[in-house]
Write a structure and sequence with these properties.
single chain, 224 residues, alpha+beta, Cyclic Phosphodiesterase, Chain: A, five-stranded antiparallel sheet, 6 helices, globular
């Protein structure tokens, strides 16, 4: 692996301006790192477009969790993460996305399914999530993580978890509510297992990988 050129490492070093973090501006959430000009929060994921049945089930889950004393906010969008959130310099965006594109050239489209609810929290314990875990397609997801990790290593960025629990985050709340959510997880799982015409299975047609960096989103189609 070639080291990054020194000119890239020092470019714009004088433009960093830490900005005050105001958690009231985004629902009480706290960033894992300070925003600095020229630094772009970046992550890689597989998108999921919710269907009506999913939306109805999610509302039932939120209502039941609320009755248990856990007030959850639904995610604004749904996806399976393939990377941690890393900080990417603006002038690295093009070479970073080109590296991803090259690595994905032989990756094929596949299906994966989820069905078991699980409680997650971020490393800082400032947010707790209700997610639904993947049970088919794990091998293909690990192949994609391998591609993403190689690009991360190329830019000296943090790679993904060694033994990831692939999932779609459904909803979240501020603070460490892990214990409270686990106390009602069986009742929530029952809603999934006994949904209208049998157990609800969230199925993703994984045909497109996306990279979100700041306010830009790059899309990479997987081979049919």
């Amino acid at each position: 692996m070639l080291p990054l050129p020194g000119c890239l490492l020092t470019m714009f070093s004088d433009e960093l301006e830490p900005q005050t973090e105001d958690s009231s501006l985004h629902g009480g959430r706290i960033r894992s790192f300070k925003h600095e000009r020229g630094n772009w929060a970046t992550y890689v994921y597989l998108p999921y477009q919710p269907e009506e049945e999913f939306t109805e089930l999610l509302q039932e889950l939120l209502s039941t969790a609320g009755a248990c004393g856990v007030v959850l906010t639904p995610q604004e969008e749904f996806h399976i993460s393939l990377s941690q959130t890393v900080v990417l310099r603006h002038h690295w965006i093009h070479p970073f996305t080109q590296s991803l594109k090259s690595g994905l050239v032989h990756c094929k489209r596949f299906m994966c399914s989820t069905g078991k609810l699980r409680v997650y929290s971020n490393a800082e314990k400032t947010r707790t999530f209700l997610g639904i875990e993947v049970y088919t397609g794990h091998a293909q997801l690990m192949d994609l993580v391998g591609v993403v990790d190689r690009t991360m290593e190329e830019f000296h960025l943090e790679t993904f978890y060694k033994e990831p629990s692939f999932h779609v985050s459904l909803a979240w709340c501020v603070g460490d509510m892990t214990v409270e959510m686990k106390e009602c997880i069986q009742e929530l799982q029952r809603l999934v297992d006994e949904h209208e015409e049998g157990p609800f299975v969230l199925t993703l047609d994984c045909m497109e990988l996306r990279c979100r960096t700041g306010n830009k989103t790059f899309s990479f189609q997987l081979n049919s």
